[in-house]
Amino acid sequence: MKILYAIQGTGNGHISRAREIVPLLQQYGELDLLVSGTEAEVSLSQPLKYRFHGFSFVFGTNGGVDKWATYKIMDLPQLWRDMHSLPLKDYDLIINDFEPVSAWACKLQNRQSVSLSHQCAFVSPKTPRPGKWNYGEWLLKYYSPTTHHIGFHFQRYDDFIHTPVIRSEIRDLQTSNLGHYTVYLPAYDDKKLAQYLKATNVEWHIFSKRQKTAYQVDNVQIFPVNNEAFNKSLASCEGLLTGGGFEGPAEALFLQKKVLMIPMQGQYEQQCNALAASKLGVPVIQAIDEKFVTHINRWIKEDNQVWVDFPDEAAQIVHDMVNRYAR
Question: What string of DSSP letters covers 257-284?
């Protein structure tokens, strides 16, 4: 059997999940990997068959998307060429994690494909989202369209939605509590964060997309994004301060850490994720402003423990997917 697994490369969550899924898929046949996007710091250990520029957004420094930087890296003619040039006829199974090049290539070549992603959970109207319609619904529907869906979310909102894939390296961590707090807020400048967080009386570990070397400001340590270092910090922290992503909060909740979420401004999916997490009891704030330190100190003092049940189902999900959808 020949399998194509196409992965979104914007942010780290998609590739982090793929690190768990790839070895499982390799048990079923010859696996080719495709990544498109420009904003991930983590990588796969396996070689890529295809690497495309894709269609990505750029994280800003004030809590949202950097629209000008996003526009500058946009290359629609190349996206069009990549969609039309990707050869798919020899694959028995095409799997997509919110990756647009392969999704639209499948549409053009009349090939079936399977979403294995968090984003496809929004196919279900039962998945939490703000009451007011947002153009982000259109983006979730048409950015990476597929014919079949296997979704992941914090809860099983529908029959095709599973709880998060927690990587083995996270499941195997020995946890402790050394009292510090771990921070991953890629849409905020680390220097701005440090100025706020140094006003508290606890230790902070900020993991920054923008720094190549570590530095320290009073009780705040800033590190470049690194998978092993982040996992070590997360395993031994009191809590995680993070954005409105999915995999990061899910892993922290699995490790029974406190979580505080600040969804990106203007990023609809993150707003939906934060709403879903709040229904579990995770506190959410919408911006870093003059009240931020007050919110942080309240979060530090409160328990905010959220109990979740994220069983290890990845192998069974992959098994069922291969047997159901491979031609």
Answer: -EEEE-PPBT-HHHHHHHHHHHHHT--B
The pLDDT tens digits of the residues spanning 222-268 come to 999 888 999 999 999 999 999 999 999 999 999 999 999 999 888 89
Angle, helix 247-254 to helix 268-280, in steps of 10 degrees:
20
What lies within 8 Å, CB to CB, of 228 at 6+ separation is none
Backbone torsions φ then ψ of 280, nearest 5 degrees: -85, -15
Q: d(Cα 154, Cα 251) in Å, to the nearest integer?
A: 11
In a 3-state reduction of DSSP, which class is residue 74? coil
Q: Is 141 helix (H, G, I), strand (E, B) or coil?
A: helix
- 126 Cβ contact partners less than 8 Å away, ≥ 6 residues apart: 157, 158
Question: What are the Cα distances from residue 229, in Å, to 20, 28, 89, 168?
Answer: 18, 32, 41, 16
User: What is the value of pTM for the model shown?
Assistant: 0.89
